[in-house]
Structure prediction request, 143 residues.
Amino acid sequence: MMRSDAKVEKVYLYTKPVDFRKSIDGLAALVELDIKVAVFDPVLFVFLNKFRTFSSTVSKVARDQKVRKAVIDRCGGHCERPGCGASRSYAGFLDVHHILGVEVSDRVWNCIALCPNCHRDAHFSMDREALNDSLMQAVGHTL
Prediction:
């Protein structure tokens, strides 16, 4: 979701079909490798599926790369959602989820490492508010 006060300098259209099962990190990798734009720049990216019937936009709020590294280092390669613990041996498997939203804070206390399935749950499940409450408790803070 894009903030209404976000300042976007450019809009990029990724014209190759995209598998929307990719995590945000997977889409970010496409941007960096193919478009050759830093994902932390204040730009907007638009992606299309193979039928060009669906588009998705990803807004990028300035984020501190040190926060992402600290969260990934903290998790030891495992999803931090209580009861999940999924892991893979390759880099980029885990997403860093901003529990209260990146607009609120891009700090380690507001972030948790999640596998792609848990990350989607944290944004779209029917019980996402309760889930995000439990994620905040998992990182040692209460709302």
Notes: The chain is about 30% helix and 20% strand. The first helix runs from residue 24 to 35. The longest strand covers residues 10-17. Residues 10-59 form one domain.
